[in-house]
Amino acid sequence: VQLQASGGGLVQTGGSLRLSCAAPGLQLNYYAIGWFRQAPGKEREGVSCISSSDDIIVYEESVKGRFTISRDNAKNTVYLQMNNLKPEDTAVYYCAADPGTPFIYNSGVYSCGEMDFWGKGTLVTVSS
C-alpha cells in the first residue's frame, strides 16, 4: 500500500497550503489517517490525526486553530488545510493510514500513535 502526499511548496509566513493524501486501491474512509512531519535534525511528530469514524480528531498543540484535517470520501482523499503558516512549520509532511485506532490516550488527551502504512512526503517550506 502506497499513500501519496501532495500539495507542498514554498510559502511566505502567514500563507496557506492544502496538503492532499490519496491512496489508489485503498478505501481511506475505513482507515485512521494521520499527518506527520519531520523537520531537519528533528524527530518525526504527529501533526493531526483522524479516526476512521471521525470521532477522534487530534491536533498537535502548535498547530491548533491553524490546521484542519478533513476527508472527502467521494474523492478518497484526506486533506490538511494549513493556514497562518510559520517558519517553524517547515518540514517534510507525510500522510499515514492505519486500520485500527492508532491513538495514544494520556491524562485525558489523545495524540497520534504509530500507523501501519506510509507514503512519501511532501516538502513544506515557510519563508520568513
Tell me what you see in this structure.
With about 130 residues, this protein is mainly beta. It contains no helices and 13 strands. Strands 1, 2, 3, 4, 5, 6, 7, 8, 9, 12 and 13 form an eleven-stranded mixed beta sheet that branches. It has a two-stranded antiparallel sheet with strand order 10-11. The radius of gyration is 14 Å and the shape is globular.
In short:
It is built from no helices and 13 strands.
Helices and strands, with pairings:
Blueprint: E1 3-6, E2 9-12, E3 17-22, E4 32-38, E5 45-50, E6 57-59, E7 67-72, E8 77-82, E9 91-98, E10 103-106, E11 109-112, E12 117-120, E13 122-127
Parallel strand pairs: 1-12, 2-13
Antiparallel strand pairs: 1-3, 3-8, 4-5, 4-9, 5-6, 7-8, 9-12, 9-13, 10-11
